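Hi F.,

I've been meaning to write this up properly since the lab meeting, where we talked about keeping a consistent format for the predictions we share between groups. The idea is simple: the sequence comes first, exactly as it goes in, then the structure tokens exactly as they come out, then a line or two of notes. No screenshots and no reformatting. I'm using this chain as the first example so we have something concrete to point to.
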Amino acid sequence: MRKVILLYASVNTKRKTMITGQRIKAVREARGLTLEELANQSKVSKATLWRSENGKTLPEMDTLQKLAATLEVSASYLSGESDALGDRYAEADLSDLERGLLVALREGRITDALDSFRALLPGSK
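Output, unedited:
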């Protein structure tokens, strides 16, 4: 039983390592960055980045966070824990109207959400 658990953990770690590497590379390429450019901008060594992208090693959390910040996605997305690229706007960046729209949507108050949305349209007062 112990061998089965260890084997599962090993396979799961390898899968996560590959997913993380594939996502880092895909987002880097989508942003039009070379491996060297991303390494320089994120302050991560080129060798570490290459090993991560090629599924050789799983990046440490601080490395993953640096890459995520540079690529403007969440670390959860890069690690495969989420399929959402991440929040590009912090709550503090939202206006009162934008915040009201989101709260209304989350609470299922569609009429209020539409009113908030209309207030955001150009020419609205």
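Notes:
Residues 2-30 form the longest helix (29 residues).
The domain at 2-78 is CATH 1.10.260.40 (434 Repressor (Amino-terminal Domain)).

If this format works for you, I'll send the rest the same way.

G.
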